[in-house]
Specification:
68 residues; 0% strand; mainly alpha
């Protein structure tokens, strides 16, 4: 699979994190991520996952455009 396709997949995953963290989703997959991250981040877990989603989206964009 070309790097551009992986970049699009990564941007989709990052978008999932951003949207889920913004609305504090109760979707089962997001709740699993929250449970794992809450051990380390405590009350700031949604802010951490929002930031992580943005970073994943930026990395995916760099892969899609061929910078990485």
């Amino acid at each position: 699979m070309p790097h551009a396709a992986w970049g699009v997949v990564m941007m989709g995953v990052g978008l999932f994190f951003v949207i889920s963290a913004t609305v504090r989703s109760q979707f089962i997959l997001y709740r699993l991520f929250v449970a794992r991250a809450q051990i380390l981040m405590g009350e700031n877990v949604h802010r951490f996952l929002l930031f992580s989603g943005v970073m994943i989206m930026l990395f995916g964009l760099l892969m899609t455009t061929g910078v990485i």
